[in-house]
Amino acid sequence: MVPPTTTQTLTPGPASGSFGMLRVLGVPIRLHFTFIVLLAFLLVTGLGGRSSIGYILYVSGLALSVLLHELGHSWVSRQYGIRTIEIVMFPIGGVSRLARRAKPGEELWIALAGPAVNLVLAVILYFVATTRTPILNLSGIDRATDDNLATQLFIGNLALAGFNLLPAFPMDGGRILRAVLAGFKPETEATKIAALAGRMLAISLALYALLSGQYLLVFAAFFVYLGAAQEAAAALGRSLTAGIPVRAAVLTGYHPLTHDSTIRDAVNLTLSTSQHDFPVMHGPQVVGLLSHQGLLRALASEGADAYIGCAVERDFVTLPADADLAEALPIMARATTCAFVMENDHLVGLLTTQNLSEFLMLRRVGLDAVDVR
Ligand code: ZN
Q1: Quick one: which H or E segment has residue 120?
Q2: Which of 165, 198, 282, 306 is deepest in the core (most CB within 10 A)?
Q3: Which pTM value belongs to this model?
Q4: 69 CA distance to ligand 1 centroid (A)?
């Protein structure tokens, strides 16, 4: 199988709903808007016994611990030659997006690196906290003051390591569990177990949160559930597509446009077919893509009689026909248009998200019914 190759648009874009950018060790760090909401919430509620400066230091210290945790993952994945596309800070922690999926052996060490960073930080903070008093003073820890900032952060880092080591997706512990299970079970089955554990954990956490009135935890439970469900769906998709070439799911009955077509031609084709995106051809060669959004913009600004040239996009996603469909899944999940499936520089057909979900559904219902050659 040939790995998918792509033009510029294939460099995956930033996660939706996230903004801001800072680069640490060459890794872009972005904040998800829900993370900002949580920060604001923490700063507005309960300043406790601390001065506002102390409280801001505490919240910043925790956020920094989460960031260092993620950078731990990035550093180890780089040792395996896996680039980190970005780190996005969410309320239940950071999420590192890797350029490729780690193999089980690699995943084990990448997952362990995050909690390990928090444990190292906890040890350092322990020594900082015990410089003033020889014994770590935990009395009055529930009443946080500026004096016990190091102790608070020590406890915070222990909690971060502990929570992340829970053997359930999407926590690091879930990845460790999957990597260990993958040693003697098929990988999809290992993922299913870790994802099921994740959902059970989310439900127990939500129940506990509701019963004890800790409503912030409901928020965390929600994210855990979402993460576990996403992992399970991704694993199912992989199991239905692994080893199958992209050509098996390709839409071959497509309508191209030529470079001298007008906007009106494209509008008519959009109405008479079910196609949203069109390959733009010059003879046998693909020269660009006319997306549905691009067509709407051009129709509004240039009018129906203009040539499509003004709306043709030169950056488009291409996939080799014999690439592994499982590798194309994450690419298609982020793509906003169809992908062009190529063989020897010639367009074989289009891979659209609709066609791909149809393919997955058919494979799921009748595994052998779909011709996968
Ligand atoms: Zn982690």
Answers
A1: helix 104-132
A2: 198
A3: 0.70
A4: 6
pLDDT at position 110 is 93
User: Cβ(109)–Cβ(75) under 8 Å?
Assistant: no
Could you give all domains of the chain from N- to C-terminal order, each with its CATH number?
7-241 (no CATH), 245-369 (3.10.580.10)
Q: How far is CA 351 from the centre of its chain?
A: 21
- Spatial neighbors of 177 by CB under 8 A, at least 6 apart, are 167, 168, 190, 193, 194, 197
Q: How far apart are CA 23 and CA 147, in angstroms?
A: 32
pLDDT at 139: 60
The pLDDT tens digits for 41-62 are 777 765 554 556 777 788 888 8
Q: How far is the CA of 95 from the centre of ligand 1 (A)?
A: 7
Cα of 53 vs centre of ligand 1, distance in Å, is 28
Please identify every residue whose CB atom is under 5 Å from ligand 1, which is an ion: 114, 172
Burial environment of residue 114 by CB neighbours within 10 A (0 to 12, 13 to 18, 19 or more): buried
What tokens were used for 332? 């298609």
Distance 68 CA to ligand 1 centre (A): 10
Residue 364 CA to ligand 1 center (angstroms) comes to 32
Q: Residue 17 to residues 40, 89, 367: CA-CA distances in angstroms?
A: 17, 11, 36
Evaluate whether 266 touches 295 at the Cβ level (below 8 Å): yes
pLDDT in tens, 304-337: 888 888 888 888 888 888 888 888 887 887 788 8
Q: Give the pLDDT band (50/70/90) at residue 120.
A: very high
Q: 171 CA to middle of ligand 1, Å? A: 7
